[in-house]
Structures are given as C-alpha cells and as structure tokens.
C-alpha cells in the first residue's frame, strides 16, 4: 500500500510596522505583535488514521467509511475493555515514566535524533514514552509484519479484537511483550501482525498516520517499497515504514523489521547493512531483551548496536554490565538490584550487583523490564 502526500506551506507572512513621524528617542523597542508566524499544514491519511484509532478503541475524528465498524457490538466491547487495560497501565507505569523521562533522559527531547530499539517487537508505546521527540524510530523483532486490517462490516472482527487485546495484556500490565504469547496472537491472521499494534500505539499516543508502506531491505541496505502480497513472496528482510504526525505537528518515521538477529543469519542479511548505514545522532533502548546480547551468539548484533548509539537506556537484560562499562564512560544506575526472574536465574550479574551496592542509585517509581523491573541503566559515551 503506498500513499503519496505533500507538505504544503499554507501561509508565511511577516509584517513589520514602524511608526512614522515619531522622533521620540526615549521610546523603547517592544515586541511586534503584528508578526504572523509561519503556518504549515501537513496532510495525513484519514482512513489509516481512523483505522488506527479503531484498533486502539478510540472514536475516529474524521468522517470516513471505515467508521461503520464502530457501531458493532464487537467494537463496543473492544473499546470498553482496551480502555481498562490502558487505564491500569497509566496508573502503574506510564504516568510515572513521563515524569521521570524528561528529568533523567533529556535526550528524549531531541527532535533530530534516531531511536534504535533492539528486540523491541512492535513496542512503539514505550519508545515514544521515553523518546517522545525522536525524528525516527528503528524497531525490530521476530514478529511478523502483518497488514492493515480491513474492517468490512459484512464480516465479524471479534477474533481480531480479542487477539489484539491478548497481545497487549503483557505489554501494558508488565511493560513488555511475552514473546511466545504475542507470537501466537499476532499469527491468528495476517491482520494481527506488528502493523496493527504499531497503529494502535500510534493512535493512543496522539499520532495521525501520514502514510505507510511495506518495505523490503535490499542487498545494499536500502529500502524498497513493495505490495504486501509481493512482500510475502520475496526473499530478504521484510518490514514496514510509517510516517506519523504527532500532536505538535512533527512528522516522525517508524521502521520495523522482522528477522532473526543471531550471528549467522544477521551477518549475511541486508538489514545489517541498513543498520550500519544509520547516521546522525542515535540513541539506544533495550528492555526485557531476554539477555540475548549477553551471549556470543548475538555478538554481531551487539557490535553494530553499540557502535551506533551515543546514549543507552536499558535494563539488565539488554547488555552485560561489562560491555556497558567498555562502551559508555558515563553510567547512571536507577532503581534497586534484584535477582533475574526464575526463567533466567542462571544469568550471572555479579558485577552489576556490585555496582548497585557501591554506587549512588536513584529510586524509580515504575517497573521497567522483567519481574520487579527495578534495574534501569543509562549509559552515555
């Protein structure tokens, strides 16, 4: 699906009036209230935006045909139940995260930056929570791309809405996706892929959809726009690219890629070249990453990731503390040390425990990652 839009400059005008015949040298200069500031109107796709809001359980704001689905009992149930999920997430984590982030992570206010969020899945919600001003978000995971749902009112969409809510429960209640659960829910149909979840999070965080494209990463690392049906047949790393418009009239790019980040497949993949081509100011994020980059089996991904990011927000699962110390000269610890959850009780975090015991650690009032989620680390080069 490809949408072409242009950014139109509606009005740019500045008028400066000076008084004539007034030679009073004692008059002080005052701001000119007659200056008309630049006004830019950026068009967005009303159907995609309405679809995103419908997935998020929000009433559409534009009058488009897809809105008819909101009159069905399936959507009314979805609207009620997903609202409860988000209210609990706000109370438990999101409100406190939005207070903490501007104070401790000012990089999140950088409007020229790229956020590189490894092993994120479709987690645009928390990416935007900690880095709300980023110009570009790069996400990846094993989860399938999926496609934009078709809300044909002659069909039932109960299964879609139920699967969507199930896939969100761990993310909203625990602040991370449970991979095995999400993989099942996102494979119930082609409409339950990452595309739907990113659209949902975009709508919830106040974004409109300017456009979206299915993309294939070519051998040189560039992105080729392709139709969804062709995407399924072509070899290479599959992905999706959104352009979103936030509430401050800023356009953001969100790229998601579906691939295996283990050494052998990653090292020969075209997406490696795409990551290596990223430039400018890049910040990194890791959360509930299953300790993958602690292992040598993900060394190539770790090397590319660490070579790119200037500032890193992570928990203990993202990187071994020894690798954080080698890469970042300024490290700040937050929360409190706890042992890894039972599923990862074999992970050795002795050096991180020592750092928590010997450092000035700031408390946090939210959970980030597995279990109690109280091990938060910010590293700066």
Descriptive tags:
single chain; alpha/beta; 10-stranded mixed sheet; 12 helices; 33% helix; disordered N terminus
Q: What does the secondary structure layout of this molecule look like, with pairings?
A:
Layout: E1 8-11, E2 39-41, H1 46-55, H2 73-104, E3 114-117, H3 124-130, E4 136-141, H4 158-174, H5 179-185, H6 194-204, E5 208-217, E6 223-226, H7 228-231, E7 237-245, E8 251-258, H8 263-267, H9 270-277, E9 282-285, H10 299-308, E10 311-315, H11 321-327, E11 330-335, H12 350-358, E12 375-380
Parallel strand pairs: 3-4, 3-9, 4-8, 9-10
Antiparallel strand pairs: 1-2, 5-6, 5-7, 7-8, 10-12, 11-12
Helix pairs in contact: 1-6, 2-4, 4-5
What would you note in describing this structure?
The protein is an alpha/beta fold. It has 2 domains: 242 residues, no CATH class; 73 residues, no CATH class. The chain is built from 12 helices and 12 strands. The strands form 2 sheets. The chain has a 10-stranded mixed β-sheet, with helices on both faces. A two-stranded antiparallel ribbon has the order 1-2. The protein is globular and about 60 Å long.
Number of helices: 12
Kindly report the average pLDDT value.
88
Helix fraction by DSSP (H/I, runs of at least 4) = 25-40%
Side by side, the strands of the main sheet go 6-5-7-8-4-3-9-10-12-11
Query: How far apart are the termini?
Result: 40 Å
Rounded Rg: 23 Å
The arrangement of helices and strands along the chain is: EEHHEHEHHHEEHEEHHEHEHEHE
Shape, per Cα inertia axes: globular
Stretches with pLDDT under 50, minimum 5 residues: 1-29, 181-186
Strand percentage? 15-25%
Structural class: alpha/beta
Main β sheet profile: 10 strands, mixed
The tally of domains stands at 2
Number of strands: 12
């Amino acid at each position: 699906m490809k949408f072409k839009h242009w950014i139109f400059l509606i009005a740019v005008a500045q008028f400066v009036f000076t008084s004539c015949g007034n030679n009073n040298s004692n008059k002080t200069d005052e701001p000119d209230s007659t200056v008309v500031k630049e006004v830019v109107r950026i068009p967005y796709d009303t159907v995609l935006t309405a679809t995103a809001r419908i997935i998020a359980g929000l009433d559409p704001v534009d009058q488009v045909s897809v809105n008819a689905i909101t009159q069905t009992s399936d959507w009314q149930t979805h609207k009620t139940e997903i609202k409860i999920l988000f209210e609990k997430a706000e109370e438990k984590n999101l409100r406190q995260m939005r207070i903490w982030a501007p104070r401790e992570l000012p990089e999140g206010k950088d409007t020229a930056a790229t956020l590189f969020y490894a092993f994120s899945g479709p987690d645009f919600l928390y990416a935007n929570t900690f880095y709300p001003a980023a110009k570009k978000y790069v996400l990846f995971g094993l989860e399938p791309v999926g496609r934009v749902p078709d809300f044909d009112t002659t069909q039932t969409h109960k299964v879609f809405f139920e699967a969507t809510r199930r896939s969100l429960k761990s993310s909203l209640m625990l602040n991370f996706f449970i991979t095995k659960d999400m993989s099942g829910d996102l494979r119930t149909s082609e409409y339950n892929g990452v595309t739907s979840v990113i659209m949902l999070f975009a709508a919830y965080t106040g974004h409109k959809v300017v456009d979206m494209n299915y993309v294939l990463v070519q051998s040189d690392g560039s992105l080729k726009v392709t139709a969804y049906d062709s995407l399924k047949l072509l070899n290479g790393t599959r992905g999706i690219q959104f352009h979103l418009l936030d509430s401050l009239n800023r356009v953001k790019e969100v790229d998601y890629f579906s691939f295996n980040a283990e050494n052998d497949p990653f090292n020969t993949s075209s997406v490696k070249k795409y990551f290596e081509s990223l430039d400018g100011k890049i910040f990194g994020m890791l959360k509930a990453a299953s300790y993958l980059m602690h292992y040598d089996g993900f060394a190539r991904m770790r090397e590319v990731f660490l070579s790119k990011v200037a500032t890193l927000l992570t928990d203990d699962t993202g990187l071994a503390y020894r690798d954080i110390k080698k890469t970042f000269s300024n490290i700040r610890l937050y929360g409190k040390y706890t042992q890894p959850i039972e599923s990862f009780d074999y992970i050795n975090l002795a050096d991180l425990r020592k750092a928590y015991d010997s450092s000035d650690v700031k408390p946090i009032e939210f959970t980030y990652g597995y279990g109690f989620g109280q091990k938060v680390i910010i590293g700066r080069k």
